[in-house]
Design a protein that fits this description.
Number of helices: 7
Largest sheet: none
Number of strands: 0
Strand content: under 5%
Length: about 150
């Protein structure tokens, strides 16, 4: 009887310890890095921008006004994989164009939202064509089907 009591106590103690709260962490820190050398701030930001653009694409396709949630101004200062490229005037121009298009999309009347969104996606393609071509295949998924 005593052995059963000790065993039950041990099991309950192990169960209680396994249910202890883990410290909170952000969703981004729980995501396994895609790149073997780790992910930079800019790479993580670009993935967040992609997710936001996919959400806006769905809204447009559902005839809903796209909601701009974030303006991603940190793209001008975020740590990049190749810092010299992100510090270039060319990158700054692309980034500022993207930010201006986000503002335009936010203020666009419903009749112009699709057109502004298309320009936003093409600004991504233009920048990546010139600066970092790897993500272009993924960016193509943001494109809306051609109007018929």
């Amino acid at each position: 009887m005593r052995i059963a009591y000790c065993f039950l106590t041990l099991v309950l103690l192990l169960f209680a310890l396994s249910c202890a709260d883990e410290p909170e962490t952000s969703t981004r820190s729980q995501v396994a890095p895609i790149n073997p050398n780790g992910d930079t701030e800019l790479a993580l930001l670009m993935r967040e921008m992609f997710d936001d653009a996919m959400r806006m694409k769905t809204q447009i396709q559902n005839d809903e006004p796209p909601k701009v949630r974030k303006h991603f101004t940190t793209m001008l200062t975020a740590e990049a994989t190749e810092p010299e490229k992100a510090a270039s005037p060319e990158y700054k121009t692309f980034a500022n164009t993207h930010l201006a298009l986000l503002k335009a999309l936010e203020k666009a009347p419903a009749s112009e939202a699709e057109s502004v969104y298309r320009s936003l996606v093409e600004s991504c393609m233009s920048c990546h064509r010139a600066m970092c071509p790897g993500p272009m295949v993924r960016i193509k998924k943001l494109r809306l089907p051609k109007a018929q």
